[in-house]
Amino acid sequence: MNPYIAEAVAAMDKVPLSRYEHPGSWAMDPASCRFLAGFVRALGAKKIIEFGSGFSTLMMAREIAPIEGNYLLSIDSSPKYSAMAKEAYETSGCQAKVDFRVAPLRPRLYGPRLLLSYSLPKGLLEALGPFDLALIDAPHEDYGREAVFYDVFNALAPGGYIILDDANREHMEREYVRSWQSAYEGSIDPILLEGIGNGIGVIEKIDDDTPLYPRAGSLSSSIKTLRNYGRLLFSSGEKASVDEEEKL
Ligand SMILES: C[S@@+](CC[C@H](N)C(=O)[O-])C[C@H]1O[C@@H](n2cnc3c(N)ncnc32)[C@H](O)[C@@H]1O
User: Which atom of ligand 1 is nearest to the CA of 140?
Assistant: First the structure.
């Protein structure tokens, strides 16, 4: 078994997390939070990036806080939920360096695949990295999770890891992992931990690589992207971020 996974699984029951502290079903499952904290510790991660701000931010920040030069970049598509996560973090008393950023989700082409992607300035992630760990926990409704992997891959150190939440879902995360395997082949090593929360994907980046975006499923992915983008524009959080963009 992967040594970091083994250590995290052995340590997770001892990670402190009271049921009064856990905010609810929109956040990562409590067992997944515990595994995540155990994994950050086992890996000795110092620089982390996450997509989907919230309770996971605090769980990871607590682990890196004692390490000198720690940094957590927390990206969210919603100004409202990013601000809520920032406030919760700032009142927690944790001293890790956490940078909250808002980046709206927009359709973008990855080879033949039209996917929802967090719109960030080109080269920003590479400039702020290399990261030891990336957490993908974008909104549950199938927004942005496949593209994040392609966006963050170059900003991750070889030997670094990507953790994917809700990894058991058949027509979403399991499908994304198959696409990533097809795009990166031997340059990544994915492991699915089905029994933790809603499934946790732990994917090691073995080496730098240029993805060969898969053709298979690209039409249905692109149609899904357009449908989800429409839904997103009608949701209040995203409307706020579009309004913000229009003011700039
Ligand atoms: C799957 S949630 C998880 C967020 C974070 N990783 C966690 O574990 O708490 C992902 C998205 O839900 C949204 N969100 C955050 N707080 C929320 C809340 N209180 N209610 C509903 N959605 C929320 C955010 O836009 C975030 O990107």
Answer: 1
Is the pTM above the cut of 0.85? yes
The tokens of 127 are what?
């400039």
**Of all protein residues, whose CA lies closest to atom 15 belonging to ligand 1?**
81
Q: Which domains are assigned to the chain? A: 3-247 (3.40.50.150)
What lies within 8 Å, CB to CB, of 53 at 6+ separation is 74, 75, 76, 81, 82, 85, 86, 100
Per-residue pLDDT of the chain (248 residues; tens, 9 = 90+): 899 999 999 999 999 887 788 888 889 999 999 999 999 999 999 999 999 999 999 999 999 999 999 999 999 999 999 999 999 999 999 999 999 999 999 999 999 999 999 999 999 999 999 999 999 999 887 788 999 999 999 999 999 999 999 999 999 999 999 999 999 999 999 999 999 999 999 999 999 999 999 999 999 999 999 999 999 888 755 555 555 554 44
Helices (H), 12-120: 30-43, 55-64, 79-90
Q: What is the 3-state secondary structure (H, E, C) of 80-107?
A: HHHHHHHHHHHCCCCCCCEEEEECCEEE
> Which of 75, 81, 102, 135 has the most ligand 1 atoms within 8 A of CB, as the residue to mutate?
81
Q: What is the DSSP letter of 116?
A: E
Instruction: Give strand pairing partners of 193.
Output: 200
